[in-house]
Design a protein that fits this description.
Elements lengths: L5 H9 L5 H10 L12 H12 L7 H8 L6 H18 L5 E9 L2 E8 L2 E8 L4 E3 L6 E2 H22 L10 E6 L4 H17 L4 E6 L6 H17 L4 H11 L2 H7 L4 H15 L1 H6 L16 H7 L6 E4 L2 E3 L5 H9 L37
Parallel strand pairs: 6-7
Antiparallel strand pairs: 1-2, 2-3, 3-4, 4-5, 6-8, 8-9
Length: about 375
């Protein structure tokens, strides 16, 4: 992409409460808590959090019996177990106001009365504090509970890492954007990335490519064919043409405004059409994807290489990545792929996401939506 049209495109871009009885029923169904009184909505969050982690962990009967037979415990030990239980509950459940009201010795167990958001409830603990008994629910083994929670958090962290793969760094990142010319989310990203492409200029290798099927009729098919040939035959004017096209999708007006002759593209259009059987496959609906969408195979090999499944798809240095669709987010994402960031990465661009579709309005929020 050439930088001499920066000014034009940049200017264009700027252009519960549930009843007590129903809550109680829900908690009974979840087999976790039977509250003596339930009237505060936050109790629901408390129970939901329990449901997330408590799947009735198995408790070895011998361990339970050993725990319950510890009868000779001093009042200080009883108080310590009660305090530790309160700390455990505060650390592991989303309740902001939980306090110990009283604790007493009940044969093989300690009976605790706790206050949660001003409402009292009873629970019991083994005398070693390892087991917590909720009336109507399975015992909570604190060690097993903590292990389950840690495993879940580890799994969630691993999943997040998988969703956001690390971009391989390079001196001159290759940035490939796959779109459909009339997909509103494709045009949204194009409007967001143009200022970035023009800012970074030849410090990146930016390549606009097309998804290997079209969803917006023959208008899209032939617009993509035309844009392919502009990139091949008149690349210095492509940024300017695309910036214009994103205003209203008016091909003829943008060719005129950018002084690109359609006649000069005819040979390229004809040759490319024949090479990739574009018109032939459009006319033969038996070749359409799912019988609905004509194939567009100019960049088919790269689509398959990266597993492209919709418009837009952003690939940087061979890695498919996610990014916000505002210029600043796209700049930050691309700049993270440099071995040594150029000074241009310190520039501040708009952090407002462009609107989907044609026109240079702002949506105010980013989205992961695709045409697929």
């Amino acid at each position: 992409m050439n930088s001499k049209n920066k000014k034009t495109s940049k200017n264009q871009y700027v252009k519960n409460t549930e009843s007590k009885s129903s809550i109680k029923n829900n908690m009974i169904k979840s087999n976790l808590f039977v509250w003596k009184t339930v009237s505060v909505v936050l109790f629901v969050a408390f129970v939901l959090f329990l449901v997330l982690f408590l799947t009735k962990p198995s408790v070895n009967n011998s361990n339970v019996n050993n725990a319950l037979n510890q009868n000779n415990v001093s009042p200080a030990d009883m108080q310590n177990v009660a305090n530790e239980t309160v700390v455990f509950l505060k650390e592991n459940f989303p309740v902001s106001d939980l306090t110990l009201s009283e604790v007493s010795n009940e044969k093989e167990l300690y009976k605790m009365v706790i206050s949660v958001e001003g409402q009292e409830m009873e629970l019991y603990t083994s005398k070693d504090g390892e087991l917590i008994f909720i009336p109507g629910g399975a015992p909570i083994n604190k060690s097993e509970f903590v292990a389950q929670k840690q495993n879940l958090e580890k799994t969630q962290t691993n999943n997040e890492v998988k969703k956001t793969p690390e971009i391989v760094k390079s001196n001159k990142p290759v940035v490939e954007l796959f779109v459909m010319s009339h997909c509103p989310y494709g045009t949204q990203v194009e409007k967001g990335i143009l200022p970035v492409v023009e800012l970074l200029d030849d410090k990146i290798d930016f390549q606009l490519k097309f998804v290997n099927y079209a969803m917006h009729g023959d208008t899209e098919v032939y617009e993509q064919l035309l844009q392919t040939c502009i990139m091949q035959e008149d690349p210095d004017k492509f940024n300017e043409y695309l910036g214009c096209f994103l205003e209203a999708g008016d091909t003829d007006d943008c060719l005129e405004r950018t002084n690109i002759s359609r006649e000069s593209l005819e040979a390229c259009i004809t040759a490319t059409d024949e090479e990739y059987n574009i018109t032939e496959m459009y006319d033969d609906k038996a070749t359409w994807v799912s019988g609905r969408f004509p194939k567009f195979l100019i960049h088919d090999e790269d689509n398959k290489k990266y597993g492209v499944q919709g418009s837009p798809t952003l690939v940087i240095n061979g890695t498919t990545v996610s990014s916000g669709r505002d210029p600043q987010s796209l700049l930050d994402t691309i700049c993270s792929s440099f071995t040594d960031k150029p000074v241009e990465c310190e520039e501040q661009l708009s952090s407002v996401s462009p609107s989907p579709g044609f026109g240079y309005g702002n949506s105010g929020s980013n989205t992961d939506a695709q045409c697929n």
